[in-house]
Amino acid sequence: MTEKKHIHDVGGLNARLQAITRRARIDMRYLHDDRSREHIVAATLECTRILDVGAGMRDHLGALGDRVETLDLNDFGDYPDILGDVCSPFPDWMEARYDAVIALAILEHVYDPAAAVANFRRALKPGGKLFLYVPWIWRYHAPRDLMFQDYQRLSRDGMAYLLREYEAVTLYPLRGKYSAILNLLKFWKASAERRFGARLNRLVDARASDWRNTIQTSGFFAEAVKPKTGETA
Asked: pTM higher than 0.85 for the full model?
């Protein structure tokens, strides 16, 4: 047997990657009862300036008020406040401008999510909060005219790695193993969930373990904090 050539420290790398995944806390409180937007409202009560990318909080603007600035790649007339690309460097005047950045169901539509998350980090004040939602088990959903595109999905491990330079990373799975699969059928959310609510998904997902419901999920709502000093892993 010939001696293997070691071109990288694969053992050390794997240990670091495992540590990044494990440092992301999993909270299953919203697995069958999605309260992520209400969570954001409560978590941003003390924030004076908020950036909402894609206006995912449009139905909660009454709670957020004039503290919000919106950003989008497309111009819809009265929206957004800032027209720009989240993957390209933000201007200097946006650096450390915001107490919170919100990007719900956005990162699957951008061509470079790592660049976007780095921009969000620069735009946040030290100690500022980032709120994301990214799908995992979900169908392609870009329009035919490609006004926006649909590039990728992110697993638990992918979310943890994407947020590795943030602190207090918490991932909230939304839907479990079987309800996520059923949600691929268009009638499920519009008819079954609307009629029977969270209890139907709980019943369906009771057949799977907590671990399976955590990793085989419709998507992840995430909360993370920009470090006040220094760098993270």
From this structure: yes
